[in-house]
Amino acid sequence: MIFLKIAKTKTELFNFLNPQRASNVKIGIVPTMGALHEGHLSLVNRSKTICDFTVVSIFVNPTQFNNHNDLLKYPKPIEQDIKMLEEAGCDLLFNPEVEEIYSPEEVWNYKVGTLDSLLEGEFRPGHYQGVTQIVNKLFELIKPQYAFFGQKDYQQFLVIKKMIQDLNLEIEIEACPIIREANGLAMSSRNIRLNAEERKMALVIHQSLLFLKENANQYPLNQLLNKAKEFYADHKLLKLEYLKICNIQTLQDMREKNKEVCIALIACFVGETRLIDNMILL
Ligand code: AMP
Q1: Which residue among 120, 152, 156, 206 is best mutated to probe the pocket of ligand 1, counting the most ligand atoms within 8 A of its Cβ?
Q2: Cα distances (angstroms) measured from residue 79 to each of 6, 58, 82, 124
């Protein structure tokens, strides 16, 4: 087992990172909000195969929450997270407090562009302002050559990829596959909040995505989506926010299935818990 270094402050972070930079090692960053699961660990493993030094950040970033209750309820099992990172062979955990990251009157004016008004951007106004703000800060602090994100948050991956281009950052970004439980439920820190009945209901999300994938070439897309939405019709615990088939680069709605690869994306409340998932349709 590798000894996991933990930095709570920027000074501690620099003290750990400076010798690494001096010896020219490849640094990989895996930004997270903690309550770690196999999905997060798959990003750590990917970083370890490509990079010499893997940094995981755990920071529940207040600026990306548009729902204060969601922020307050966000799980923080830090001792368990540390154990998982030690076992995964992560080199350094950066786990700062909010005051270490933000000064009281800080502003961030990056223009996310059209991705900001679609899907997650539409339902969580300001979310990607907050996400780009924290990820850019982590990039500035850690100066990684590689950054690993999950396809689970596909729109976030596209937003960060664009920010890297817009700000001319010298960082390779990679999207890693969605890790699911054996029953198909995409792993998420928010799954902890589901009770037994909700867990069962949440399986509809994966089932409806599979239905779209398996039938993508059978029906016109409008009809196909309507059929998939029927999966949600009779379940009181499920409240669909969106279920869309989009262009995989721009996330604009697709009206017809041509030869392009597209992606089905979904956000759905299961009881009080909002879950997202997606699947690439060939
Ligand atoms: P979060 O802690 O939810 O902010 O997620 C941190 C990173 O882990 C993001 O890049 C997510 O896309 C990724 N991630 C979350 N869940 C999964 C999963 N089930 N499979 C793969 N990556 C994931």
Answers
A1: 152
A2: 12, 12, 5, 30
Give SS3 for 30: strand
Q: Are 101 and 33 in contact (CB under 8 A)?
A: no
Question: 39 CB under 6 A from ligand 1?
Answer: yes
In the structure, how many helices (H) and strands (E) does the chain have? 10, 9
Respond yes or no: is residue 206 known to be catalytic: no
pTM of the model as a whole: 0.97
Burial class (CB in 10 A: 0-12, 13-18, 19+), 89: middle
CA distance 123 to 104: 26
Task: Tell me the C-alpha distance between 191 and 148, whole Å.
Answer: 22
User: How many angstroms is it from 54 CA to the middle of ligand 1?
Assistant: 16
Instruction: List pLDDT tens digits, range 169-181.
Output: 999 999 999 999 9
Using the mean position of ligand 1's atoms as its centre, give its distance from the Cα of residue 151 in Å: 8
- Alpha helices for the chain (secondary structure H): 10-22, 38-50, 68-73, 78-88, 98-101, 119-123, 127-142, 154-166, 196-215, 221-229
Span 3-57, pLDDT tens digits: 899 999 999 999 999 999 999 999 999 999 999 999 999 999 999 999 999 999 9
Q: Is 271 left (phi over 0), alpha (psi -120 to 50) or beta?
A: left
User: Which residue type does 263 have?
Assistant: I
**Six-digit token pair at 26?**
């490849």
Q: Is residue 152 lining ligand 1, measured as CB closer than 6 Å?
A: yes
